[in-house]
Amino acid sequence: MTEPSPADRASRVLADIAGESRPRLPEDALDPGIPVAATVVLLRDGGAGPEALLIERPDRGSFAGAWVFPGGKLEQTDRLADDEPEEDAARRAAVRETWEETGLVLDADTLVTLSVWDPPPGLPLRIRTWFFVAPAPAGDLVLSADEAVAADWVAPDVLLARHTRGEVTLYPPTWVTLRGLAGAASVVELIDTARTGGHRRFETVARRTVGGTTLLWPEDAEYDGSSEGTARHRLEVGELPWRYTRED
């Protein structure tokens, strides 16, 4: 029997998600009752183009063994007022979590909002996550042993290729973000694009299909269960390589 690859771990979790989720309701995307998290895509210019900082989680917890961007859930101290925008509190959490996990000190003003990921509804645990992008600050990495067992500055296409070969565990928000970063000429280009383009909302539904689990987003014609139209915005994660499609 073939040993499962690191990439299989995420595929099994995503298959369970497709079985547990329910149809999405309008209020799901802004549900105040679910936890909120923040993560930071730190970028630096490398010899072959931009590189992102990723850390490998310990072999336990909800993202066991996965390579992720630094980040974590909001704490009460991240909120200055109950009625302040969630994005503002998430930005503070992103700065705090990056320092706690990597020892790198960020200026909150350098963080540009990249995306918001809202997982499929109906799951026992849902965490809405804000993604920010920022240039890497000066300083040495000092990893928190409880949060990371390894770290690497890596070109997005290199890590995606490792995932395709089954060598690493990635989850869809990380995979899709890396795909969006791949091919850029510089960090300045990536951050300027994020700043001028505005952030995207990924309000996810999960379905079981013939090829395995498929994640869909609102631009997809089949997002609401219908089959009218040909527009596609989806990620097929049933087998490697994962297949991302976005077509109007």
Can you tell me about this structure?
The protein is α+β, with helices and mostly antiparallel strands. Helix content is 25%, strand content 27%. The strands form two sheets. Strands 1, 2, 3, 4, 5, 6, 7 and 8 form an eight-stranded mixed β-sheet that branches. A hairpin with a 6-residue loop joins strand 11 and strand 12 (243-247). It is globular, with a radius of gyration of 18 Å.
Offer a concise description of the structure.
The chain is 25% helix and 27% strand.
Layout of strands and helices, then pairs:
Blueprint: H1 6-20, E1 36-46, E2 49-56, E3 67-68, E4 71-73, H2 86-102, E5 112-118, E6 128-135, E7 150-154, H3 156-164, H4 172-181, H5 187-197, E8 200-203, E9 205-209, E10 212-216, E11 232-236, E12 243-247
Parallel strand pairs: 1-6, 5-8
Antiparallel strand pairs: 1-2, 1-4, 2-3, 2-7, 5-6, 9-10, 10-11, 11-12
Helix pairs in contact: 3-4
